[in-house]
Design goal:
- This protein is α/β, with parallel strands linked by helices and 317 residues long.
- Helix content is 44%, strand content 23%.
- Strands 3, 4, 5, 6, 9, 10, 11 and 12 form an eight-stranded mixed sheet that branches. The protein has a two-stranded antiparallel ribbon with strand order 1-2.
């Protein structure tokens, strides 16, 4: 008994027609009939009633059909599993992330992933959360690290919260601190010269919204920079900036935390709901979560930044 014979048998059973089944299977009808007869001889029983062009299953055929379908389904599952394992030796993963995470968390995660799967090509799309959401929904990314809650509705995406990260005020060590206290308040940013990110940055929207909620419009000394540029402007003493704690810890700048519950943002992992992430992307998600739970990552997290357990699989929906 061969898989090909079981596939021919199941197709004839579904169509109740040898010629139509042969067309579906892209084989000659005589060849199909011969394979069915060979299967019947091997089993010692007829599988179909053939009378005046009408095809019906015999009792033996009825008994075999669910078993044949299960065998074929298990074979397809085995084929896919083996292919996915093989694909981890080659292929690609497309990850989206905001610039602040590309400057802090992402490099270490990608290094760990590359060490484990050196044959997988890593493609990183750096952008704001709203841009990443659109790119992810369009199928141009497998996974994306985004800041939640998202400003707009994203019904096609599933998100899993990973981290709650503290935002701090960065200033140049060569300049006076923005306040003489150990902690700063949002109100203290009034009339302070802010180095502000370009439009489309989540940090820009977060900072301006916090200032407006406190009753004032922020003042900019420099406006429109990317992350590296903003850090450089602050280092040069052109102003202060609100940046993530993990970025500040690597920047060499003075970091002043906010008072009370502070200013925080939630970092989540997103993927499309309607398409399961490919195996390589699921492995990257696993590496990310293991990195966050590792002792080394814990040392890198600033005091106001914490994991949000439990951290389920990214493809759990």
């Amino acid at each position: 008994m061969r898989l090909q014979q079981l596939r021919y048998f199941a197709t004839v059973a579904d169509t109740r027609h040898f010629t139509r089944a042969a067309e579906i299977l892209h084989v000659a009808q005589p060849s199909l009939s011969q394979q069915i007869r060979t299967l019947e001889r091997e089993l010692g029983a007829e599988l179909f009633h053939r009378a005046h062009g009408n095809i019906a299953l015999t009792d033996a055929g009825e008994a075999l059909l669910p078993l044949a379908r299960q065998i074929l389904a298990d074979t397809e599952t085995a084929r896919r599993e083996v292919q996915e394992v093989a694909q981890l030796r080659r292929g690609r993963v497309r990850l989206g992330a905001p610039p602040s995470l590309c400057a802090s968390l992402v490099p270490d995660v990608l290094r760990r992933f590359h060490d484990e799967f050196p044959g997988i090509e890593l493609i990183v799309d750096e952008g704001g959360s709203q841009d990443l959401v659109r790119t992810l929904a369009a199928g141009e990314l497998d996974l994306a690290l985004v800041i939640t809650p998202l400003a707009g509705q994203a019904p096609a995406l599933a998100t899993t919260e990973l981290l709650r990260e503290e935002l701090v005020v960065a200033s140049s060590p060569a300049s006076p601190p923005p306040v003489r206290r150990r902690h700063i308040r949002v109100e203290d940013l009034r009339d302070q010269p802010l180095v502000m990110f370009r439009r489309g940055y989540d940090l820009r929207e977060f900072t301006t919204s916090a200032c407006r909620a406190a009753g004032f419009e922020p003042s900019y000394s420099v406006e429109g920079g990317e992350m590296d540029a903003v850090l450089g402007f602050v280092r040069a003493g052109l102003g202060i900036a609100v940046i993530p704690g993990m970025v500040a810890a690597r920047s060499g700048l003075r970091a002043t935390p906010f008072a009370g519950h502070g200013m925080q943002r939630t970092i989540s992992l997103a993927h499309r709901k309607d398409v399961a992430p490919p195996r390589a992307a699921r492995e990257l998600s696993r590496v990310l979560r293991e990195h966050l739970r590792s002792g080394r990552a814990g040392e890198e997290l600033t005091p106001g930044t914490r994991l949000l357990p439990p951290v389920p699989d990214a493809d759990s929906g």
